[in-house]
Every structure is written in C-alpha cells, then in structure tokens.
Amino acid sequence: MKIISLCTLLALILSSCSKNSSNSATDMLGDLSLSAMVSTDSSGNVSFTANAANATSYDFDFGNGVIQTVASGVIVYKYPASGNFTVNVIASGSNGQTKSKSIPVSVVIKLSLVWFDEFNTPGSPDPTKWTFDIGTGSGGWGNNELEYYTSRTNNAIVSNGTLKIIAVKEPYNGSAYTSARMLTNGLYSFKYGKIEVMAKLPASIGTWPAIWMLGNNISSVGWPACGEMDIMEQNGSQKSTIFGTLHYPTEVNQYGDGGNTMLSTASSAFHKYAAIWSPSTIQLLVDDSVYYTLPNQSGLPFNQNFFIILNLAMGGNFGGTVDPAFTTDQMEIDYVRVYQ
Question: What are phi and psi of 143, to 5 degrees?
Fold first, then answer.
C-alpha cells in the first residue's frame, strides 16, 4: 500500500508540473509583428496593426511625442503634420513580458489655404482683417510695457509688399514710445490647422516683438483660462533666440510651457514662424523645423477658436531695459497664412 501511495503521489506531482509548464508556455508572449498603411488621400491617416500571441496591450509611440495604449493592437492615427516618423510599439503580456518593434512612416498632408494677408495693398492694414488695441492697457498690458499703442500709419503701415509695425521713441499721451498691436479679434478666428508668418524681427535692445494667439472666450473667462499660444517672441536682449510658449491654467512652468531655438539672422532676414495645431498636439516651428511640442487634450483650453495678434512692445517684463540711444525699429511681415 505504501508503495502504491508513493507512486500515486509521484504521478500527481509530475502531472501538476506538466500542467504548470503547459500554462506557462500558453502565457508566453509571441513574436511581435507591426505594419502600417498610409492613407493615399493626404489626410494624414495611418492604419497600424500590431500583433503578438498572448499580448494584453500595445503601447504605440507615433514618433511625434504622442503615445497611446491600445488593447487590440489595431489603430488609425491621424498625423497633424507631414514628416518622417519612427513608430515604436511595445507589446505587453499578462506574465510581465514585453516585446518591441519599430517601423518608419512617411506622411504627406495636403492643407488648403483658408485665410491670409499678403500685405500687397499700400497704406493702412486691411480693416476687414485687422483691428487695433489702443493705449497702454492695464499695467502696461499686464507686462509693464512702456509703449502707447496706436492705429496710426506712423506705427503700422503696408508698403512695398510688407507690413511694418514700427516702434518710435516719442512722447505720446504720457508714454515715451509708440507702436502698434494688430489683431483679428471679432473679424477672424479658427480652430486647428497651421498658421505661418514670414517675418523679420527688430534688432534694437529693449524691443519685444510677438506673433501670438488668444482664445475667443477671453472676455468671459479671462486669462489664462482662455489659453495663449505664443508662436514667436524675441527677448529684448537675446536677439538671436526665438521663444515659443503655451499659457494655460495647468501649465507646468511658472511662465508657461514652451521652448526656444537659436536663429542668428532673426533680425537681418525673413524667417517662417509657425504653429501646427491639432486635437492631439501643438507644435511650434521655425523655418519648418519643430522645436517644441505640447500634447493637447480635452481638458486644455486649446480646443476652441483663437484669434491672431501681431505686436511690437517696448521694454516690460520680457523686453527689459530699452537702449537709451533707441529711436525707432520695426517688425516687418511678408505674410500671414492659415491652412486647414
């Protein structure tokens, strides 16, 4: 009886080990395959299929700062901009195993020009496209700026195919400088797409040019709840550095989330300053090169219409001390274009 019992016990143990081994083999994560099919309609849509036996989830890194977890391994992702991307996928199994695979993807998106100003008509800026902020605002427009904004052609004029926003040292209504701040508020706004501005920036110390946008609801919710996109700012003393910043209530950094890039000829040549904006990302670019990306999401204010602002400030928080020898300088703009 003891011999039979021991044999029976040994058989049970072997059977249990066999089952565990079998279950372990069943849970093993298989080889990962990954394929991509780019839509031929220039929409930016790419269909991805990832597959690995026993995978429970797939993490897709689309190569542009956007990451999504997909249980099925099948997803259609819409790229907001053309480019060459390396897509990486990590498959995860229930036993903690992971496997990864990468694939290159080339995307070409065709956008249509939906709004523009080429500044070809001499004189004052087109009143059907632009209006002006006048005066000094509250506390120097909230930034301790030194200028008085006007709508005079002394400060904003179209000539020889470009817009000139001109800062002048002159006593005017209690201010030591005049300039202009043009905006499309009430005339034009848009949600998502690409905005591109070709501009040459001032060289004088203490000047603070900006190309930016504010949310349409600023009058009802205030700032920063409305959201702000600074497509281009040039510091008063760092004339070879371009800054781009996003402002919103939950921004990580005290002075907004953004980046900067060096541009040695910012004040001597025209360059393209742009933002590519979608429900998933906001990208800031100089001369078609992305230097900062903010993941967009439903909880941020960047999912509504925004209007465009062009201005040249003097001094203030970002302009700093104005050169005592300053007399006049300008931001010159060749065009403003919006694509969708």
Answer: -130, 15
Residue 80: its pLDDT value, please? 76
Active site residues: 228, 233
Q: Which residues contact 106 (CB under 8 A, 6 or more apart)?
A: 38, 83, 84, 85
Cβ contact 292:244 at 8 Å:
yes
Using the predicted structure, report yes or no on whether residue 11 has a pLDDT greater than 90.
no
CB of 146 within 8 A of CB of 155? Answer: no
CB under 8 Å to 312, separation ≥6 — which residues?
147, 165, 166, 167, 179, 180, 181, 202, 207, 208, 209, 210, 329, 330, 331
**Range 40-54 average pLDDT:** 95
Write down the pTM of the prediction.
0.75
What's the CA gap between 151 and 269, in Å, rounded?
26
CA distance 230 to 328: 24
| pLDDT number for residue 306 | 98
In one-letter notation, the amino acid at residue 127 is P
Using CB atoms within 10 A of its CB, is residue 89 exposed (0-12), middle (13-18) or buried (19+)?
buried
113-339 has the same fold as 33-107: no
**Domain layout of the chain by residue ranges:** 33-107, 113-339
Residue 14: pLDDT band with limits 50, 70, 90:
very low
Q: Mean pLDDT across the stretch 11-39?
A: 70
* Angstrom distances, CA of residue 21 to CA of 10, 18, 92, 120: 16, 5, 20, 78
Kindly tell me the sign of the dihedral angle through the C-alpha atoms of 192, 195, 201, 207. Answer: negative
**33-107 domain in CATH 3.40.50.300?**
no
Tell me, what's the pLDDT at 25? 58
CA nearest 201: which of 89, 103, 311?
311
pLDDT of res. 232 = 98
- In CATH terms, is domain 113-339 a member of 1.10.10.10? no
